[in-house]
Each structure stands twice: as structure tokens, then as C-alpha cells.
Amino acid sequence: MGRQPCCDKLGVKKGPWTAEEDKKLINFILTNGQCCWRAVPKLAGLRRCGKSCRLRWTNYLRPDLKRGLLSDAEEQLVIDLHARLGNRWSKIAARLPGRTDNEIKNHWNTHIKKKLIKMGIDPITHEPLNKSDQSPNTQIITPNQSSSSSNNNNNSDISTAESLNQTQSSSPETANSFPAMSSENVTNNSPPPPTTENSSSVNDNQSNDPSLIEGINIDNALMSYLWDDTDVTPLELPYTYNCDQPCLSSNNVANTWEDNYSWLFDCEDFGIQDFGLDCFNDIEIMNTLDVLEMGNKE
DNA sequence: AAGCGGTTCAACCGCCCAGGC
DNA sequence: CGCCTGGGCGGTTGAACCGCT
């Protein structure tokens, strides 16, 4: 006997979401928060599967999502993370604020995969497609290796930075085609205050030392942070959601907090009723923004 | 302008796992 | 301990879009 379907298939609408449905879902989530997804369609007046509602919200409607193509730095980070984590898109996405696993997965399959193949790199193993190109001393990180290394975050013999360097150096084209995070970018990407002792000093020592970063040279503290599966706090890329501090994205384009919540500001510009959010006044919208911002800071 | 093939990405599917009972 | 449910995950699909002929 098969598993019970997540919802009654009869009368459940499938396919692309309409603006009207989006409005209803946004309305409901902003009013009630994310609760039992199975109950959401009924309560929100949607003829959709609860699962579909959750997906629509998490992958498309969430106000903290960044839209548009991944930046070079994000792309590079995805490649590095994929080399170690494999197709664990949610883990990868957890390190990229404002990006969803679905988005990253799609981007990988449609863009990055092709780029890597074009460069002669196997997108699965991250090894050169032509093995003869690989020098005996060159160590490439494969997903399998990474999973074992992830179990030994704190005492791996080869530093992550070295490994990354080797990965990078094994394929010079990679460095060229994927403008690795500049030292400035990487230092700006320093993770939030680490939970482990010692690491703060590591951070302090390295944050202003460009000599430590060539190409994609990331320090151990950062990488152990990245590999800590228990900590899903997003890596702070140069995007922040601090409304007081307009900041630079990886491509040095001013990227403000407002950019990421532009849809809510559109509500202000055009009137929330235009978005079907009649039930909210401006104060409520701003409260929502506050809550969302707090969530991102945590 | 129309037809065609390739590409993109939102959405779906089915499986898995954790937690509650 | 086993069953049930909710939610998360990765893989896949297909409609929409785009560029070329």
C-alpha cells in the first residue's frame, strides 16, 4: 500500500500560480505566519496542495529572496560547496542568503554544469575530464572526500584553504573564468561570530590580511563554519539586510536592504490594496519588515 | 512572420526522516 | 516499538521563452 497523498488530489489545482493565488498565500502567511502547511490551502482559500503552497512560498514568494542570476562570487561559492557536499542543495542554499535550493539546483544544472564541462572539469567529481591533465600531486576534492572531511572539521591534516587552493590551481581556467572572490570579498564574507572558541581570533587575524587569500583561499575558520552541518546560519555574503548600511554585492554594485524587499516597498508605492493586501496598513507592513529583518539578522 | 529546436526555471513527484502518539 | 503525519529533500517535468533559420 502506497503512502497517503499529502492532500486530496481531487479538486486540487496544479500548474503555474496565478497572481490571485499568490496574493491569497501572501495574505495568509503575513497574517498567520507559517503554520501547518496542510491547513494553509483551506484557510487561505486556495485550491492547492499544502506542499505546493509551501514550495511556492519558500521558492518564490518569501520576501527575503534575492532575485536574478547568481553573482560570480555566489557561483564560485556554489562550486566550492558542491565539490564538498555534492548535490545537497539545501545545505548549499543555507550558505547563500536569499537563495533557495531549487534556484541553486537549477542554476547548477543550466549554467555552472556547462561552464565546468566547457572548462574540462567534471561537474560531478570536480576532477579534470582529461585525467592526464592532472598532476600526481594535485589533490581534487570530491564529494565523497568532502563528506569524510566534513566529519573531521577541526582536525583535518590538509587545511581547507590549501585544498581549495589545490582545486583552484589544478585548473587555472577555473580561476580565470570564475573570478574568484577577491580578498576584499572574502574578508567581507567573514562569517558571523563563530560559536567555537579560538575562531574569533583567527577571524581577526585574517580579516585584514590579503596575503592569506589568493584566488579562492578561504581560511579554516570559515570553512569549518561552512561544513558545520548543525549550523545553518547563512554565510554572510556581501549582501546584508541592514537597512542602515547600504552595502556592496560581490560585483561591487550597491545592494541595499531595500533591493531585497522591493516588492514590499512596491506595496507602499502603489498601495497595498493593489497587491491584495488590503488587510494591512502601512504600519503592519513595516512591522512585517522589521520581523523579517530580525529573522535575517539571527 | 512562422516554424523549429534549445534553454530556462517554476512546479511537481516521490522518497526520506523526525517527531508525536 | 510501530504507525502516522508533516515537512524537507533531490530529481524530473513541461510550459514559457529565446534565438536561429
From TrEMBL:
Domain Myb-like: 9-61, 62-112
Start-end of Polar residues biased regions: 131-143, 157-180
Start and end residues of each stretch annotated as Disordered: 125-213
Gene from which the chain derives: LOC110795225
Name this protein carries in UniProt: MYB-like transcription factor ODO1
This protein's record includes keyword rRNA processing: no
Principal subcellular localisation of the protein: nucleus
Keyword flag Lipid biosynthesis: no
Gene3D superfamilies the record matches: Homeodomain-like
Species assigned in the record: Spinacia oleracea
Keyword list, A-Z: DNA-binding, Nucleus, Repeat
Biased composition (Low complexity): 144-156, 196-211
Subcellular location(s) of the protein: Nucleus
Record-linked Pfam families: Myb_DNA-binding (PF00249)
Residue stretches making up the HTH myb-type domain: 9-61, 62-116
